[in-house]
Design goal:
Layout: H1 2-12, H2 25-46, H3 51-58, H4 62-78, H5 80-90, H6 92-110, H7 116-145, H8 150-157, H9 159-175
Helix pairs in contact: 2-7, 2-8, 2-9, 4-7, 5-6, 5-7, 6-7
Subcellular location: Membrane
Protein name: Major facilitator superfamily (MFS) profile domain-containing protein
Keywords: Membrane, Transmembrane, Transmembrane helix
């Protein structure tokens, strides 16, 4: 009887959170967020470089090729609640690793596609789901490491998107 009561009162009390350390390992987490930001939104926003080449390769219109990124961003945003539930149930690291696996699988599978409809699935759906599973946990975990300097760290880590757009876009346009 006493054992049951101890379990019930444990769940009825207020949650105790440890104080954020404002630094330490948090800076490594911030660098990881910078890289995730760089390789999610940076790549999504640099995708326009490939638009003309993909139109020629598949003989499709601009609007049909543009659906690739539209589907990807929709899947990324629509599955944010799923990412949040998974993050609470399985933890940050597992969800981010699954997201990275989906991004890798979707990107590699896209290189073997022969039609635009296949790219809608491989890049739009699979990679978009991977982006959703990596982006939200990395944004959320910063709050566990920073409280006083959270806005500064988030702002610095969010510059990954801009850096990727300014570095990847010229580099990829020269490769094409």
């Amino acid at each position: 009887m006493g054992l049951c009561r101890a379990k019930v009162t444990q769940f009825l009390g207020a949650k105790q959170y440890s104080k954020a350390p404002d630094g330490g390992w948090g800076w490594v987490v911030a660098v990881a967020f910078f890289l995730v930001e760089m390789f999610t939104y940076g790549i999504i926003k640099s995708f326009g470089i490939f638009l003309q080449d993909m139109m020629e390769e598949f003989g499709e219109t601009n609007s049909r090729v543009s659906w690739i990124i539209s589907i990807c961003v929709f899947i990324m945003a629509f599955n944010s609640p799923l990412s949040s539930v998974m993050m609470n149930h399985f933890g940050f690291q597992f969800v981010v690793m699954i997201g990275g696996l989906l991004i890798s699988t979707g990107t590699i599978a896209t290189s073997f596609t022969s039609s635009l409809n296949q790219i809608y699935i491989t890049y739009g759906v699979v990679t978009g789901l991977g982006y959703s599973l990596t982006f939200l946990p990395t944004v959320t975990i910063l709050s566990k490491y920073f409280s006083r300097r959270r806005s500064l760290v988030t702002a610095l880590a969010s510059t990954g998107e801009s850096l990727a757009m300014s570095a990847l876009a010229p580099g990829e346009s020269k490769r094409i």
